Amino acid sequence: MKLTDVLDEKYESVSSKNISAMKRSTPYPEKLRDLFREIIDSNPQEKSDAYHKTYDAVFSYIHTISPDQITSFCSDIMNDSSRSEQTKSGYFLSALINAHAEKTTYDGKYLLILHPEACVQNVGYRNCANVHIIGNSTGSCQEMNSGKVIIDGNVGNRFCWRMRNGIVTVLGNAGDFLCWEMIKGSVHIQGSAENQAGYGILEGTLTIEKNVRDQAGWRLNGGKITIKGNAGHNLGQSMKRGNIFVQGNAGRDTGVLMEDGDIFVEGNVLTTTGNRMEGGTIKINGNYESISPNCRGIIYHKGKKVW
Fold first, then answer.
1. What percent of the chain has pLDDT over 70?
2. CA geometry: angle at 198 spanning 253 and 201, to 5°?
């Protein structure tokens, strides 16, 4: 999917600008910068404390600030702050957007342009708005509540951790623990993902356009995971419910310790399929090397039950 398929004309044009051109494009109250320094310098014990402190501090006047001013403020942070401050700015920016959306009921899009050399942590925390983020981040969209988020970049580990609802599209790749214990929602990764994608998902959908590494769908407890490339080893390990669809190949020990649910692999599967599998169904359309002798589940090969 191209950027133009998911962004409107305004945000497509902004994405091509150099971040320095955004500096002070829309002046914002200086007290925002002062508050940012105060929060960052306080070095709260719990990182999420920065979110709550920011939210409480700005809520009384956030309605006087426009979405464009939030964009401009973010651009200034990315231009003028240290790399450490840029990295830690995620909770602060998240609090600004959520407070503004809740106080004003604004339902348009917020734009954040991150520094190309910074990997901002925890942006989109508890998100409840429509946000477009340009740049790379890690730990983004944790505990997301609602709204639509588009990330034009890569996301690191723990992306959409315990997501509660909403729709997210990532135009790059994802790291480990993607959608860890997601409660509900829809996540679409245009690139690849690392280990333990979809761990413990309760409900919702996770779609990965390319490959995933090992233990995708570990302890899956509902919902649907679609992998359009190949999956690594231990696909669906200990899954309890839900569905996993792989359009490519899968590694060894597919369905290991699986309790229930369904796994479908369009391509080939390596050795010891169904190892210590207690229940559920695995369907393979390609070839498989071997089925574990201690498999207690059901396995189909090209539509025919073979175990």
1. 91
2. 115
